[in-house]
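Honest question from a wet-lab person: if I give you the sequences of every part of a complex, can you actually get the arrangement of the whole thing, not just the pieces? Trying it with mine:
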Amino acid sequence: MEHRLRTPLSSVEVLFLKAGDIVWLSGTIYTARDKAHAQLFRWKDLIPLEGAAIYHCGPLLRGGDVISAGPTTSGRMARYASQVVDLGVRAIIGKGGLPGAADYLRGRAVYLAYPGGCGASAAGQLRLKGSFLPELGMAESIWEMEAEELGPMVVAIDAHGRDLYAEVRARACGQLER
Amino acid sequence: MRREDVVDACVSALRRAETSLPSWVEDLIQSARDAEGDSLARSNLEAIIENIKAAAARGLPLCQDTGLPVFHILLGRKAELGFSLEESLAEGVRKATLEVPLRPNAVDPISRINSGDNTGPGMPALIVDLVDGRDLSITALPKGAGSENMSVIAMLTPADDPLEFVVRAVAERGGNACPPLFVGVGLGGTFDGAAALSKRALLRMPGSSPLELELLERINSLGIGPMGLGGDTTALGVKVEQACCHTASLPVAVNMQCWAHRKATSIVGEDGWSIA
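Yes, you can. This is the full assembly:
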């Protein structure tokens, strides 16, 4: 099933998404990766987090233009993700999944997979609006962006406990044990 | 040979590598899309093909992770360089960072301070071979962290099965490395030698020996699929580079490369340069 959504997301909208569905997302989103997550305690003073979408992305920018802006590996931010959801975030966007996240996402938030490496496509769907923590540099700052049908994204971990990555990896590793 | 030719050839190889893929890589991705039986996987492969078109249309980088600058240098034994090759390649990287542009990715491993121009101690990383002739060949292989972070090396014992190790590495880690993958395998040699061989394997993709095709089939039967979300297409190529190892050792290294196998070559001669 395909969904066209706009941020901020409501809890009802999130519950409607099922693992394997496709999402196109519009509205304000915020990039954040390693260094921004290390300063998670500052987020609530900087950005409105209720219903927000956080994008694991270190964009390539030139002046005010988004040149290339695909997802980075979410696994590095997994240790912070339950706190991010506690802050009210309802969609975490990235690639590769968040190991162990299905439990704390349950009933509250989803993980959306943007196709990895597709930075040129993403750049055409994103417009730069502002920045926070600029001292962290291009790749690591929090960038506020306006998304216009960002996608296609796969609901890879839904709010009902399904994690497609965990299912695929368990099948692959199980095959090696046979 | 003129220093400015080396700088320009370096910028040009980086630009070509960052904004387009070798045609054989594109062909493999399109064939995989046509053969893929899983609809989610096909949609991911379709998104990759669209991205390749978008990058080509705008002449801008395929991926925001423009990587660390890795170069394979073939230096003619009779080439006359009246200047530092390392310095002129570093200048090429600095220029490309501004002009292509590239994301500044090179940081100090302890302070994490970014040099701002993709150069610094050990960067650019050079793999150098001497060859006959007077020319200089510069192959850019910009390497992103998503796939490099999922690479792995092990000192196995002679009783272990190195092929099993390679397949297991992809099963456990490949989903994070932006599949469909190119899997570079370094088998044998020394600890550092196995890792170096696995990087060289990426320069010689795709493999076609019975061993390489067997590994490719075993990896694709895992069902990891594009982006680790399931499907028939987990790898597009496997290449194995081997060296003798100690009778007590079995080093094996797996260097993962994402679908964006970015690689381009410029040649510098006495009278100028061209892109291959």
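Two things worth pointing out. Chain B has a mean pLDDT of 97. DSSP finds eight helices and nine strands in chain B.
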